[in-house]
Amino acid sequence: MGRTDGRGRMVSPQDADDTGAGILHVDMDAFYASVEVLDDPSLAGLPLIVGSPEGRGVVSSASYEARQYGVRSAMPVSQALRLCPTATLVPPHFDRYVALSHQVIDLFHEVTPLVEQLSIDEAFLDVRGARRLWGSPGRIARMLRARVFEATGLTCSVGAAATKHVAKMASTLSKPDGLLIVAEPDTAAFLAPRSVRTLWGVGPKAAEALEARGVRTIGDILTTPRPALEWALGAAMADRVWHLARGIDAREVETEGTSKSIGHEETFHEDVDDDAALRVEIRRLADRVGARLRAHGAEAARVAIKVRFADFRTVTRAVTLPEPTSVGQRVGEAAIELFDQLDRPLPVRLVGVRTEALRAALGTQALWDDDAEWRRVEEALDDAAQRFGRGAVTRAALLRGVPADGGPPSHPRPSQHDH
Questions:
Q1: Which of 88-92, 166-170, 204-208 bottoms out in mean pLDDT, i.e. has the lowest?
Q2: What domains can be seen in the chain, in order of their start residue?
Q3: Is the pLDDT of residue 416 over 50?
Q4: Which of 119, 252, 263, 384 is deepest in the core (most CB within 10 A)?
Q5: Is residue 47 within 8 Å of residue 85, measured between CB atoms?
Q6: Is the pLDDT of residue 374 over 70?
Q7: What pLDDT does residue 226 have?
Q8: Which residues are marked as active site?
Q9: By the 8 A CB rule, do 359 and 298 touch?
Q10: How distant, in Å, are the alpha carbons of 140, 281, 303, 398 from that of 378?
């Protein structure tokens, strides 16, 4: 869910210049909330929060009416309802969201094969080669918006620009239900007045470091000596910011079907301060990640963990593996080693395990395979899961975490499946 609440919205006129604006960023508007309104029109126009009604639930999405009260994604539902006590709370229906997402992405592929799906509700499209078939980028963007609404009843916002970064900035500014075109010759003028916080990769800490030095807009970056940027941000980020501020973004629309990361995370009913129980949960998550890697025919070169403490402070750690793997045992060992290195001053409310730097599985090529025995075990578990359902066969060590009623020990969040 984006952070925009619709105020300050910018859209292009019908005859806007679209010279060189061949990259589109399409973003569905308040997607989960909009689907709930689609299925229950009585919710239209109301401040609406999509999230679990249970006390530990977090906001999955919110209507623009609710966002104007300060409601944001990942915020505890209890906090969101304090900010907007008149909001209507509805539980999420993820199967419905996924079905509509597939329908929308199929529409994109009817226009161009160059589609990079970023998440369930947004994608980049390269339409530079589609002009002869469909017309100019602006015409294609308007056609796409109309097709999405006609097919699904949902609205989307589109940014059109010469690069992915500027297209994404434009779609954010056009929300909700808008189209903003930035012609290639107008890129510098478009970027200059924007906050440094709108640049890709500039988080709150980096933004504060820049603002403390009087660098508040992208235009300010242009007049800041490069060594000063490196002092504030470090060499790698300074280089990226220096280029993006000038409208330089070499990233192409990537159409690979393999995910860039695969992960799972769990939020506990109650904060947990038992390290052994937390390690059991990490092992459980790692096994699920390994199963998903094998199902996708992928191997991962990096393992990352996410830990959220009782005060909502969240930390992440990652490590590169000696060899890419799809074996949950190996993922779990790396994740637990990362976890054991963390300073844990408070009980934990959420843990997550994610694998990154994925590649197609190449099969075992080494003469000696340290994972061979575990690979055979886990492939047998995959077969049992396919025949009898996931969880029919599991590690004995995981059973200590199963509550007396046989249910899961935590609230499973939607799979973290980054495209």
A1: 204-208
A2: 1-185 (3.30.70.270), 192-245 (1.10.150.20), 261-418 (3.30.1490.100)
A3: no
A4: 263
A5: no
A6: no
A7: 92
A8: 122
A9: yes
A10: 47, 18, 18, 15
